[in-house]
Amino acid sequence: MLEVTGLRAGYRDTTVIRDLSLAVTAGEVAVLVGPNGHGKTTLLRAISGLAKPAAGRVLLDGEEVQGWPPERVSLRGLVHVPQGDGLFPEMTVEENLLMGAFPAASWRGRRKELARVYDLFPRVRAMSGQRARTLSGGERRLTALGRALVRPTKIMLIDEPSLGLAPVAIDAVYAAIADLKAAGTTILLVEENFTHVGGIADTVHVLEMGAIVRTGGFEDLSQDESVVETYLGRLT
Amino acid sequence: MSMTDVVGILVTTITLGSIYGLVAIGMTLIYGTLRILDMSQGSMVMAGSFIAWGVMAVAGWNPVIAILLAFAGTFVLGTLTQLVSVQPLLSRRNVVDFEMITFITTFAVALVFTNVALQVFGPYQKNVTPVISGGINIYNGVNLSYQALTMALVSVALMVGLGVFLARTRWGMAIRAVAQDLDAARLMGIPIGKLYPLTMGLASALAGIGGVFLGGLYFASPQAGDLPLLEALIVVIFGGLGSLPGTIYAAYAIGLIQGTAEIFVGTTWSLPILYGVILIVLIARPHGLLGKPAEARL
Description:
- The complex is a heterodimer of chains A (236) and B (298).
- With 236 residues, chain A is α/β, with parallel strands linked by helices.
- Chain A folds into two domains: 1-77 and 153-166 and 180-188 and 225-236, P-loop containing nucleotide triphosphate hydrolases (Rossmann fold), CATH 3.40.50; 87-152, no CATH class.
- Helix content of chain A is 36%, strand content 26%.
- Chain A is built from ten helices and ten strands.
- Chain A has helices at residues 40-48, 70-75, 93-100, 104-108, 110-120, 122-126, 137-148, 167-182, 218-223, 225-232; strands at residues 2-11, 14-24, 29-33, 55-60, 63-64, 78-81, 155-159, 186-191, 203-208, 211-216.
- In chain A, the strands form two sheets. Chain A has a six-stranded mixed sheet with strand order 6-7-8-3-9-10, sandwiched between helices.
- In chain A, β9 (203-208) and β10 form a beta hairpin.
- Chain B is mainly α.
- Chain B has a single domain (3-284), classed as ABC transporter involved in vitamin B12 uptake, BtuC (Orthogonal Bundle), CATH 1.10.3470.
- Helices cover 74% and strands 3% of the residues of chain B.
- Chain B has twelve helices and two strands.
- A two-stranded antiparallel sheet of chain B has the order 1-2.
- The radius of gyration of chain B is 19 Å and the shape is globular.
- The N and C termini of chain B lie far apart (38 Å).
- Chain A binds chain B through residues 48-50, 69-72, 74-75, 79-80, 82, 86-91, 95, 98-100, 102-103, 107, 147, and chain B through 170, 173-174, 176-177, 180-181, 183-193, 297-298.
């Protein structure tokens, strides 16, 4: 589904992602863990087109999409839920969801798609008339996830879904992600550590200094003292 | 203050405010989405007034045709202006001083338009047939020309139409989305390479229609857009850069101040008083009536 090879990316003079390779197969939930500042967000931005990679390839369903503008990658079915949610603050929740249906084909069926997302996330339906900037952190994240589902999606990139949320809101967000997994959605998710991803991760990749240093199952890696000690700090 | 004064002030407020609003709202739309002050908007007023002159005074056709042609013609001109003076700089917008450079490049395009008009039409003022002639004495000597009335009605209708377009339609909502969060809008698949030229075309078309009416009130000439451009700039800054409601409030507030000053101190002092009031308001509220610090949203 998604295949990244030899990807290099960063900002003007700084390389953040160094020759990174990674594959996500259809229906898989891949989780990338790594400390802050080691390139998790940059990697997602380089895949979705928000950042231009300096080298390497990004294959989406076999098609090379590296260097494409994000609007073009998006139309190929890649949905990126960015850090900070990327909601349109002066729009209502429903208007935000409608923007998820921007591609012409989705726009025609927008009422049906909206109803489907509302059924999946009843809490989003309840706040549909509210302006996005008045939402709490958890409500914002659920809305952003809902917006990502309004159109047909091949793969979802989710940037630190637990960031800045109260524990109860984190549980709600991860329950929603578990629903997506159950529905067969392909997901590449990044987090700072293993704390919340136990129930959903099929594969875990450990990112350090812009490269993947370990790959394995959740059980193996989260039990591996050396991984936890070296890269992530001890879980408490 | 007599009843006659009040009616006179109201008439000036509504007619002046509507046309100020129509010409300025495009600048707000462009600033909100592209973060540039489009100095070519005056040229669109000028082009609209020449189209009105050509259609009505030369060809003798119906004013409705003039309005439609001015809309279409300035839409195309605005789109081309964007493609020439803004689009090439977009990919480098974080590297260069985008706001200042586009201020200059759009101004350069405006100068080209002015000189082309000078070459083609000559320096002399052309009388534009009013869209509609005559007027009514609405109260005790206060006269309202049908031209001014039509101008106010069409302007208000266009501003309401723009509001509905932005609130309800796919592309209108996309314009708002781009204004509020560019990265997120692109992640939704909104093609900014098309949306930006369309936005500038639409804004220009509104100014072009403004030109049809202003041409009828004054005349068509290569410099006919200079004063409207200055007025539009004042309206958008007074209202708060990037705020559509702010622009509309500011347009009518300026109409009100100007109308009041004209009646009580006369035409000579109405502009100095207007600018004095604007100066005081901006000192108290540097971001304008409804502007927000460091951000601008539609």
